[in-house]
């Protein structure tokens, strides 16, 4: 039982929903919901990739800055 609702009550609700909306509309709704979930997951994975790319770019910029700084320090000591 889920929160006081038995399996028979759930089946009755399912039958009423099917009668009201029809199976075609429910299939369409399920497909739309599935597409939305896929889109959300794709957006989340793209965001993670963007964060990793940004981190790599920041590290490269830090490395370039350090190299330039080290070169300027060597030039000053000469």
From TrEMBL:
One of its GO terms (molecular function) is protein transmembrane transporter activity. GO terms for cellular component: TAT protein transport complex. GO terms for biological process: protein transport by the Tat complex. Pfam families: TatA_B_E. Belongs to the TatA/E family. The chain crosses the membrane at residues 6-23. Its main location: membrane. It comes from the Bacteria. Keywords: Cell membrane, Membrane, Protein transport, Translocation, Transmembrane, Transmembrane helix, Transport. It is a single-pass membrane protein. The keyword Transport applies. NCBIfam families: PRK02958.1, tatAE. It comes from Bermanella marisrubri. It is found in: Cell membrane. The Tat system comprises two distinct complexes: a TatABC complex, containing multiple copies of TatA, TatB and TatC subunits, and a separate TatA complex, containing only TatA subunits. Substrates initially bind to the TatABC complex, which probably triggers association of the separate TatA complex to form the active translocon. This is Sec-independent protein translocase protein TatA. The keyword Translocase does not apply. Part of the twin-arginine translocation (Tat) system that transports large folded proteins containing a characteristic twin-arginine motif in their signal peptide across membranes. TatA could form the protein-conducting channel of the Tat system. Residues 44-78 are annotated as: Disordered.
